[in-house]
Amino acid sequence: MVNLNLRVDVMNNLIRFFNIVHRTVRLATAEMVKGKYFYAVRKGTIPGVYDSWDKCKAQVDKFPAASFKKFASEEEAWAFVGSTASKLGTASTTDSADSNKDYTDSELETIFANTSGVKRLYDDFSEDGEPSAKRRKSPEETGTVCATQATVGKDSFTYMGDAVVVYTDGCCSGNGKTKGARAGIGVYWGPDHPMNVCDRLPGRPTNQRAEIHAASRACEQAKSMNIKKIVIYTDSMFTINGITKWISNWKKNGWKLKSGGEVINKEDFQRLEKGIQDLEVVWMHIPGHAGYKGNEEADRLAKQGAAKPEN
């Protein structure tokens, strides 16, 4: 009789357990049907978990190599983020059509980072001349604080895979003028990063020289920190084409152009070529003045550098 009662109790417990499981699954399914999701931003302006597509989109829109994904549970979302930041509210919202897609990291990289086909206005990408001047704001219109060089840890950088991400830019007020022109370089590693650079460019002041020297400085800094791989975001296709395509022919032809003229930026590209030695560099073109935060910050640093007195 005791054994029979024990079996009945066990069966009752099992029934109650399966009822609880069934109810939990049913409620979870109902929540998913209602469209209650959690949007995890692993790489964006502010990584974290958001309760609506619009909030998530605000963090990843125009952020190169952004990484985000939609989840049915908050725990899974935070696991994806791998963040210790404070959790946000989870009010249910109606999603836009775009949020129904489950993006992979490779798709995100294509959407947000592959901008090499976009040509910046007023930029001449030929190998034998300087471009027209970029429209630059005055130094008074900017407020970037230049940090001093210091030893920093690996966790202070932004990564794309195992490569460190950096943004470079150059500027020149009065580009092409013989008097009054001032050029500056900007290297942006991250918000208030101690390796951010804003320096006046000595020598011949032009946009193209500034762009090349900004990239050179980033490479030199990377090697000084024992960084082996970097992704350089620049809005200068002249710099990218020069160092990846044209330089080999220039060297074969004794630093002559196809037209027979001298390569104006010979010394600049020689410095950049030396800078990338023993360094794995991925060159990424990003459209200038298009709202990309890293590029905008590098641009501000360059303008700050141009405003400095020449050493």
Tell me briefly what this model is.
With 311 residues, the protein is of the alpha+beta class. It has helices at residues 2-34, 53-60, 74-81, 105-113, 207-224, 237-252, 266-276, 293-306, and strands spanning 38-43, 48-50, 67-71, 159-160, 163-173, 182-188, 197-200, 229-234, 280-285. Helix content is 38%, strand content 16%.
CATH architecture descriptor of the largest domain: 2-Layer Sandwich
Given as residue ranges, the uncertain stretches (5+ residues, pLDDT < 50) are: 83-125, 129-150
Number of strands: 9
Task: Look at the helices and sheets and give the structural class.
Answer: alpha+beta
Order of helices and strands: HEEHEHHEEEEHEHHEH
User: What radius of gyration results from the CA coordinates?
Assistant: 26 Å
- What kind of assembly state do the chains in view correspond to? single chain
Main β sheet profile: 6 strands, mixed
Mean pLDDT: 75
**By CATH's scheme, which homologous superfamily of the largest domain applies?**
Ribonuclease H-like superfamily/Ribonuclease H
What's the end-to-end separation, in Å?
100 Å
Assign the CATH topology of the largest domain. Nucleotidyltransferase, domain 5
Number of separate structural domains: 2
Residue share in helices? Answer: 25-40%
Name the beta content range: 15-25%
Q: So how many helices?
A: 8
**Shape call:** elongated
- For the record, the CATH class of the largest domain is Alpha Beta
How are the SSEs ordered, and which strands pair?
Blueprint: H1 2-34, E1 38-43, E2 48-50, H2 53-60, E3 67-71, H3 74-81, H4 105-113, E4 159-160, E5 163-173, E6 182-188, E7 197-200, H5 207-224, E8 229-234, H6 237-252, H7 266-276, E9 280-285, H8 293-306
Parallel strand pairs: 5-8, 8-9
Antiparallel strand pairs: 1-2, 1-3, 4-5, 5-6, 6-7
Catalytic activity: Endonucleolytic cleavage to 5'-phosphomonoester
Family: Belongs to the RNase H family.
Protein name: Ribonuclease H1
